[in-house]
Amino acid sequence: MNDPSRDADTLAPGHGPAAPGPGLSGFSELSELSGLPGLPGTSDPRTAAGPSKAPRPPAAPAGTAPAGTDPADPSPPVLAPELPAARGPITTLLFERLVRPPHRFGLFSLPLMSFPARFAGPVLADEDVQLALFVCYELHYQGFWGVDERWEWNPSLLEVREILETRFEEGLARAVSCPPAPRPGDTRRALVELVAAAEGPDLSVFLQRQADLAQFREFVAHRSIYHLKEADPHTWGIPRLRGRSKAALVEIQMDEYGGGRPGRMHSELFRTTMRGLGMDDSYGAYLGRVPAITLAISNAMSLFGLHRRHLGALLGHLAAFEMTSSIPNACYSRGVRRLGGDEETSRFYDEHVQADAVHEQVAAHDMCGGFVAQHPSRAGDVLYGAACGLALDRLFAEHVTGSWSRGLSSLREAGTTIGP
Ligand SMILES: [Fe+2]
Ligand SMILES: [Fe+2]
After folding, report:
1. What is the pLDDT of residue 6?
2. Structural domains of the chain, ranges and CATH numbers in brackets
3. Nearest ligand by distance to the CA of 348
4. Neighbours of 358 (CB within 10 A)
5. What pLDDT shows up at residue 155?
6. Which ligand is the nearest neighbour of the Cα of 252?
């Protein structure tokens, strides 16, 4: 149901129409660039029974900095995104429930229980499953406009999430071969070898040398799902650690969160990049446009972060992330500049060239090495988490480059519903 308070040309309430990005020189033809900043709106699944019938306040127009209330803090007032359009029977029913006050509901009323055969397909590419799981997890981050905060710990919701998680874990296990557990003291070397053996299309080189601005914006739209909450999923690991591994994770996260300077938070640097590219930098602006594999990347981090039993995988995942960051980010930075981006627009990528060269050492040696020294039996978990991160990134790169090589967008078309 469309919210009549919306302008017809907005992506979602609060997402303004395209405006030239201040960080781009020589690019004013935003309208031909996949329509990204002013993407057509997706249908609003909310019902009138929702706890908040007030329209979501508008955010700053795409490509512009918001008017903050605190001059020391560039981040805008937190505006939770609206629920995206449903992508199948699970999200249709789930979203209908979430806009009502929290309540218990019978699991058998949900199609994921009624039609278990639907999970026979590749779960990592299942739009309905990945979006449902992403929305369940997002209740632990910024939540959604019009969704009661008490849903976060609602038993029925957690039961649904567990079913989705089980399928997701099975899908990961099928897609990711489990590396052999390293011997104590060999964790760093094993991680280095795992990363060195990773295969897949080199998306970063394409973005550096060949991608046009529309393609680069698509890439940024995908990445915004994680980068706008950068570091948050791995922060769940901090209270679960002790000693050297805890100190190492905190050291990394301090950088990710700007070392006490709000404007240096990596999520804020990414918002600057988005604005420089003329994109909507509001949280979740492109949630409705990214495909299942992009959601699966974030879902894996949340899965590992929110379950103490996956602590080893969480650390391995972060290590692989840091160990594969510096060189690709140098490519992204060159790509931004080739396309006319200025220093501010490329700063997020430049920052990671420097920071992650350090982070990868801290992550592999101190964080993962320290953890395995304390928990030798969990060395395999660390390697598995790293392998999951690498595999998902390979599948993502295959999706994006495959789409572009066929002349297609790597994003979902607005309004398209995928699923039975
Ligand atoms: Fe970062
Ligand atoms: Fe980092």
Report:
1. 31
2. 182-405 (1.20.910.10)
3. 1
4. 14
5. 93
6. 2
Ligand nearest to the CA of 351: 1
pLDDT at 8: 28
For the record, the structure tokens of 19 come out as: 């405006």
| Contacts with 139 (C-beta within 8 Å, 6 or more apart), sequence order | 147, 149, 151, 152, 157
pLDDT on residue 103: 93
Mean pLDDT by 10 residues, the chain (420 residues): 31 33 41 36 34 59 57 70 94 94 77 53 90 98 97 94 93 91 91 94 96 97 98 98 98 97 96 97 96 98 98 98 96 98 97 93 97 96 97 96 96 54
Determine the distance separating the centroid of ligand 1 and the alpha carbon of 231, expressed in angstroms.
7
pLDDT at 55: 66
Distance CA 219, CA 296 (A): 16
SS (H, E, C) the chain: CCCCCCCCCCCCCCCCCCCCCCCECCCCCHHHCCCCCCCCCCCCCCCCCCCCCCCCCCCCCCCCCCCCCCCCCCCCCCCCCECCCCCCHHHHHHHHHHCCCCCCCCHHHCHHHHCHHHHHCCHHHCHHHHHHHHHHHHCCCCCCECCCHHHHHCHHHHHHHHHHHHHHHHHHHHHCCCCCCCCCCCHHHHHHHHHHCCCCCCHHHHHHHCCCHHHHHHHHHHHHHHHCCCCHHHHCCHHHCCHHHHHHHHHHHHHHCHHHCHHHCHHHHHHHHHHHCCCCCCCCCCHHHCCHHHHHHHHHHHHHHHCHHHHHHHHHHHHHHHHCCHHHHHHHHHHHHHCCECHHHHHHHHHHHHHHHHHHHHHHHHHHHHHHHHCHHHHHHHHHHHHHHHHHHHHHHHHHHHHHHCCCCCCCCCCCCCCC
Q: Which ligand is nearest to the CA of 267?
A: 1
CA distance 172 to 170: 5
**What predicted TM-score, i.e. pTM, was given to this entire model?**
0.84
If you measure from the C-alpha of residue 168 to the centroid of ligand 1, how many angstroms do you get, rounded to a whole number?
26
Phi, psi dihedral angles at 24 (to 5 degrees):
-105, 130
8 A C-beta contact, residue 281 and residue 271: yes
Per-residue pLDDT, 43:
34
Q: What are phi and psi of 145, to 5 degrees?
A: -60, 130
Q: How far is the CA of 87 from the centre of ligand 1 (A)?
A: 30
